[in-house]
Amino acid sequence: MGKLVLDGVVNSHEYYNGLQYSASVDTDAVFQGFVSSCVAAPHQCPLARSDSTNGSVTNEILNFLEGLKNNSEVSEPQRSIYAPVKLLITSNLKAPLKWPILATALHQILTGDSQAFKATASQLDEGSPIFPSNSNASEAQAAIECSDLTQRINDAQKIEQLSEAFEEQSFWGGGYGGLYLALCAHWRFTAKETYLGDFQVRTKNPILFIGNTYDPITPLVSAQNMSTGFEGSVVLEQHSYGHTSLSQPSLCTAKVIQTYFQTGELPPKGKKCEPEFAPFKSNATFVDIFANATELNKRASRQTKMTEGRYLVL
Asked: What values do phi and psi take at 310, rounded to 5?
């Protein structure tokens, strides 16, 4: 095997058993990151005012959802949007570059502007973070993930109990554990190539695992768990929000990956990389960041001076 980078790592032990308890372990923390980033940038986040706190913004959102769910005076059409709005929030925690759009949509629905909300929400991912909103993509993903399982739970009461356990772990992400179990209970196909081995491996070249500090789908703990089974591997932590390191661009992470592929050198254990921008502070993508860095390097290489007949790059 050549050099391999695994970013956004699933706990494979849980994946094949169909009980992905750790998948949503950091989802609520990512939501709090969304809120705190919003409060820190009130001019870029319409949910926040100059006197807003993390608690006040959180309570405004939760109270709105609670009112939709439990207020007997709320009409049925209004009550029916509880799940879609909650789903909209959860689905877009994975993409900090979309957080300004998410904040705008939430501000619109909190202030009663439903038409503007619909238009803004159409720019976001309205599907489950596990299964996409596109029905064909959802079925394709089920065909892969459910067929891979080494065991399935077909007892409705057991699925309900496990669903409650998932929801106790995470308000924002816990509901999808039960959804996953229920979907796969109805999936009758099994892949012929289902993996039945272990994850204790010595690879030709040690693997570089990457995990974000706050990933709502594939948490850092999953990368750390999987790394223990691959001899010589290292986990690079990117101190950022979202799903995979590309969700918040980091030149530090890019340089670690580049060095690894070029020389095989892994970062020291415990290495942590910072993103280039905090959420709400820039809408630059990783392509923009890397293109800008490349241009700066080109300029630097042209800024040379003559010293003893040799050019030295500044």
From this structure: -125, 145
